[in-house]
């Protein structure tokens, strides 16, 4: 059972395949727990049955059962429940050719809910988080870097974290939405077709 006196909840929503570096995330929290600077809880949502078994073994070995909760896949209409109860949204993607050229939906879900994000150093994630100043970045595959990142996030003043979340939410309203992206996409298509 998770501790109930936590101040901060970290959330990961999504798949648990090898392109998502869930193990690094777990080991990073283990390193942080050794410092025990602030209480926290982690919700990892979206695991398949075999993934639940595999990662639960790691969590137990790292003595994190009171801090990290693995949750199976949930219906889309239940996602908001976890989003609204979380302090930080995590995108722990491994850096590779694929993740350096794609952007996961979960980043925008987190930002739209007004929470600061913690992302690995995949190129599109870095570009968005730095340009909006809405979160924290760690080096993919490095538990030490992830530990330093969450330490920085938790030590960040609450008012500054709220401003980060607000900047992310505003960026969704102004930039990262269909109304805005539709115009850019249509313009690109018209350029390719030679129409002005």
List low-pLDDT spans. Answer: 1-5
> How is the quaternary structure best described?
single chain
Number of domains: 1
Instruction: Compute the number of helices.
Output: 8
- The CATH C-level name is Alpha Beta
- The computed structural class is alpha/beta
The number of strands is 6
Radius of gyration from the alpha-carbon trace, in angstroms: 17 Å
Spatial order of the strands forming the largest sheet: 3-2-1-4-5-6
Q: What characterizes the major β-sheet?
A: 6 strands, parallel
Question: What fraction of residues sit in β-strands?
Answer: 15-25%
Terminal Cα span? 61 Å
CATH architecture: 3-Layer(aba) Sandwich
**Order of helix and strand elements from N to C terminus:** EHEHEHEHEHEHHH
Short recap of the structure:
The chain is 49% helix and 16% strand.
Question: Would you kindly provide a written description of the structure presented here, covering whatever features stand out?
Answer:
It is a single chain. By secondary structure, the protein is an alpha/beta fold. It has one domain (8-192): 3-Layer(aba) Sandwich (Rossmann fold). It has helices at residues 22-35, 49-61, 79-84, 105-112, 123-132, 143-155, 158-174, 178-192, and strands at 8-13, 40-47, 68-72, 88-91, 117-120, 135-138. The protein has a 6-stranded parallel beta sheet, sandwiched between helices. The chain is globular. The N and C termini lie far apart (61 Å). The model is unreliable at 1-5 (pLDDT under 50).
